[in-house]
Amino acid sequence: MSVNFRDRAIAEVQKAIAADNEKEYQKAFDLYMSSMELWVKALKWEKNKAIKATMQEKMATYLDRAEKLKQFLQSESEANAGGGKTPMGANGSSAGGKAKPSAEDEDNKKLRNALSGAILQERPNVRWEDIAGLEGAKETLKEAVVLPIKFPNLFQGKRQAWKGILLYGPPGTGKSYLAKAVATEANSTFFSISSSDLVSKWMGESERLVKLLFSMARENKPSVIFIDEIDALCGPRGEGESEASRRIKTEILVQMDGVGNDSRGILVLGATNIPWQLDAAIRRRFQRRVHIGLPDPNGRARMFKLAIGDTDTALEASDYSTLASLSDGFSGSDISNVVQHALMRPVRKILQATHFKPVMKNGKRMLTPCSPGDPERIEMTYDDVKPDELMAPDVALQDFEIALGDSHPTVSKDDIERQIEWTNEFGSEGA
Ligand SMILES: Nc1ncnc2c1ncn2[C@@H]1O[C@H](COP(=O)(O)OP(=O)(O)OP(=O)(O)O)[C@@H](O)[C@H]1O
Ligand SMILES: [Mg+2]
Questions:
Q1: Is the CB of 174 under 6 A from ligand 1?
Q2: Are 91 and 67 in contact, with CB atoms under 8 Å apart?
């Protein structure tokens, strides 16, 4: 996976550089930006620290270049509106090009429009009950978003609702899913922003976007600002950091402190799977840091139940604990994958069957796949079965066992240990 994204990112960036050299600046800019999304993904999967650091340095260079290109393209289009053409200097500045007085307002309007896309109008329909385990985390979130709205009197004087909560933990454990539950259950305006979007799509305007984001959140309070994959924005300051991301980070720091601004009624919710990469100053702004770890056996049993939902299966109540004990080390998303595979097995059986046998269901004769050795077999394929005659085989425990045997946990032991270490030092347990 990691190699894949890295290779794709490198290929994309090479195209960008080629276009840049050809002076096709718009194309180069677009390519730098699309490579950025790939870099962010590659970075997420890369385990080797040294490679990671090099990648970050490279990303910073490309981002800076892209930002220069963007400035140039903007000044060029303004100049063009005035009828002139301008060559681009190595530093991205162009000769001439007067900004129109209304340009700033226009821009603000554009950004505001873009941001209204980040406001979730529809509730994602994920309820607290849809989340298995993680009681501690749910509790903290309720303290932060439900109670202050329902009982504002409770939070006065020195008792203030949480302003920043960081959800961290290995991939696929339900961090983004919890945020969806917050969006559904809380009566707040919910802004959802992914860091990679801020870095890639909004590059150059990102820090203004951040400022605007917080001011819109203030206008619409109570609000929740959810920043997914916050590590992509808020890595440690210093080497290998792009000018652009430094400015975004500084803006977030300022806004979260709310100096000169009233930050009451605004909760910033962050999610990351590499908390140790966060800048110390950002870390401090999240008053609560909650570990979203791998599920325990009870959690896993519940996840199997939730993932199967109301799909018909031949499973009995006791089978769920069997499944839970077979899936040690699996994350929530691993389990939904396993369930998907298991539920597809009957479909595959139908596709591959060379023999079917008649069965009676509700007084009607139906056909179901069977082995070539079955005494009642009829040699035929699914092509010969009429749509209303088909009876799909039930999904049985065995199908789940086979699906489990075919899959592996995606979270490594090292990762788990690191998360626990970080929890001991800076966080608290969310299970
Ligand atoms: N605690 C849980 N309860 C129910 N379903 C879960 C839980 N955790 C994970 N899942 C399932 O796994 C999917 C992926 O979870 P999610 O996107 O929240 O992971 P994440 O923690 O945000 O991972 P990443 O760090 O990679 O972004 C969810 O859509 C959900 O179906
Ligand atoms: Mg996520």
A1: yes
A2: no
